[in-house]
Design goal:
The protein has helices spanning 10-29, 85-90, 92-95, 126-136, 152-158, 166-176, 178-183, 199-209, 229-251, 261-271, and strands at 39-43, 61-63, 75-79, 96-101, 107-110, 145-149, 188-191, 214-217, 221-226. By secondary structure, the chain is α+β, with helices and mostly antiparallel strands. The relative contact order is 0.14. It binds Dihydroxyacetone and zinc ion (ZN).
């Protein structure tokens, strides 16, 4: 981290790394992060002074399958591929890395680690993360965090064919707890199954991110965007709670009643913006 001391806003970079490690611990404790499941990236470019330069020739370079021109030169903190959330929680800089895209946005340098570090690359879901970050930097969005996790309760909902429908999903999730409407008023988007780690799943996801801050990947998990790491985690946590209450009622042999349309409308009137 020595070279990063030159960054004036180093405190914000450090806080981001600490927040990612804290949330990585929560993901593990929730049972949402088996083995190397899940990944987090944060656009930390705003925290880097424009006059901060690094000798890029010193660092390992990787090309990207697709280019992200709008992200050219930008800097991200990303969890590492194959790394465990429980290890990121203990040792974030051994299990996550800082990357800087080249000017064209079709490749990146790992600038937090020496060239020699083997098997250390960003998350396998980097195409989806970058595709989303490319949208998030457009005017009007302050979201800089992208988080993917295998939230059991939400993934379980997608295993039920009749729930693979945004209207039904949102009715259930909003109905189980008022906080869902208060904190995630846009609700959740649904992305039908696609092979993890591919451009295909990235494209399907970015289509949804225009409309929603949280999207469900069928038979896989959840993808969320937010302004900071804690807030992004909180949205997933609240929606997972709703799904859990739904399943608790079902396991007890009851059909949950859910909040009525009038009660939901009242929440929108009181808390909506
Ligand atoms: O990072 O969760 O979807 C591992 C995954 C891939
Ligand atoms: Zn996953």
């Amino acid at each position: 981290m020595k070279k990063f001391k030159k960054i004036k806003k180093i405190k914000k970079v450090k806080k981001t790394i600490l927040d990612v490690s804290e949330v990585a611990g929560y993901l593990w404790q929730r049972g949402w992060a088996e083995r190397n499941a899940g990944n987090i990236s944060v656009n930390i470019d705003d925290y880097i002074d424009k006059d901060f330069t690094v000798d890029l020739s010193q660092y390992a370079y990787f090309s990207l399958e697709k280019s992200f021109p709008a992200l050219g030169g930008k800097v991200f903190f990303v969890t590492g591929t194959g790394k465990r959330m429980r290890d990121i929680a203990r040792k974030p800089l051994k299990n996550a890395l800082i990357i800087k895209l080249n000017d064209k946005g079709d490749g990146y340098y790992i600038i937090s680690h020496k060239k020699t570090v083997d098997n250390f690359a960003p998350t396998s879901e980097l195409p989806t993360h970058l595709a989303i970050h490319e949208k998030l930097i457009l005017p009007g969005s302050k979201n800089r965090v992208v988080m993917h996790t295998h939230a059991n309760e939400l993934a379980a909902l997608t295993q039920i064919k009749e729930f693979n429908n945004e209207k039904i999903l949102n009715k259930i999730l909003f109905g189980m707890h008022p906080e869902a409407m208060i904190y995630i008023p846009k609700g959740i988007g649904f992305v039908e199954y696609a092979l993890p780690g591919t451009i295909d799943i990235a494209l399907k996801t970015i289509d949804m991110i225009d409309k929603y801050d949280v999207v469900l990947w069928e038979k896989h998990g959840v993808f969320a965007v937010g302004e900071d790491v804690m807030e992004t985690f909180d949205m997933i946590d609240i929606l997972a709670k709703s799904a859990k209450i739904y399943f608790m009622c079902k396991s007890a042999g009851f059909e949950p009643e859910g909040l009525s349309d009038d009660e939901l409308e009242e929440l929108i009137r009181e808390y909506g913006n």
